[in-house]
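Comment on the following before class.
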Amino acid sequence: MHDLSSGIQIEWKKGISCINKSDWNSLALCLDTPFLEWEWIYLIEESESASKKYGWVPNHLTLWQDNSLLGAALLYLKYNSSGEFVFDHIWRELSEKMGISYYPKLLGMIPFTPVSGYRFLIAPHVEETTLTEIMVQTIDDFCRKNSISSCNFNFVDINWGVLMQDQGFNYWNHQHFIWKNPGYRSFDEYLSDFKTNQRKNIRKERNSLANKGIRVQCFTDQEISFDYLELMHEFYLRTNENYGPWACKYLTREFFEKLYTTYRHRTLLIAAYEPNETLPVGMSMLIYKGNRLFGRYWGCKRYVPNLHFELCYYKPIEWCIDNSIQYYDPGMGGYHKLRRGFQVVSNSSLHKFYDSRFSWVFNIYIQEINRMEREHNAYLNLEVPLKEKG
């Protein structure tokens, strides 16, 4: 293992563009998640989707030795909780009642990306526990020196989360959905696992689009045009307009435009066309890496019954089967995913509060909150309409 006894330089970086892409990706490309890769973070920051204007101030931690990057943590100083998808208003309200400042806080996550997999980036030849301790101590010192209320990590890698518990962080469990491919050879084989009524319902939903002459096509990498990414931005805005004050309208037009040259190689677009139309009536945008597919955004010009299910569930699942993808994470959303064979799983955030009073309250109540969340998830999984394995 690499000797960490001396010569480590600690540097805080004010943006991913301040870090060499090859240095960062030497630690990130080996991970299952695509969202910690330099290109994705660059897209979000350089498009000003995550910027000081919206309460995201990049403050990335890097550790070097002999000009070699040993460890890194994607971190942001946050002045609100917007775009985190961990809904911490209960803790913010409690801190106000206790007369404790809640912001600014230090946050480790990929902005606007509610997908498990966040972790510190550690060089493979370095002893992980030792370097993690150094990184946490550095973060703790920074937070205490600068009156930062807390350090938080959202949607963490499950194994890394266990390691971080030893560093004084406490778990908060959250609900999430995942579809697992046991090795289906066709979409019909996937359907065969459902109970009869739901199998008929899925076929009915897909046939309703086919009967209207709607065709669906997948595009990846070089097949994706710049015009379609511009159109995807319009669909993204239309979808969020439906949610009023609860909209998640974070990404700028520049994000989708820059994606064309920066991250097309991991992008899947699924487009639906009405008869005699050359432009899609609706599209979904997904990201893939290795054996995993991640649902991101979708939208349409006008409401078409069952189009959402086709573009966000059925066609992506069919694409997974055709491409031997084992896991499909559809992103945040409602319980209708259960009817399509998704299972409820827990993902976790990690929290450390530097006010001893607040930390005491959080650590007492979070155990009961987590217990109730696990019970609720188990109950929901009973609603998945799959046949019992005999």
User: Anything to note?
Assistant: The first helix runs from residue 21 to 28. The longest strand covers residues 170-180. DSSP finds eleven helices and 15 strands in the chain. Residues 179 and 244 are 29 Å apart (CA to CA).
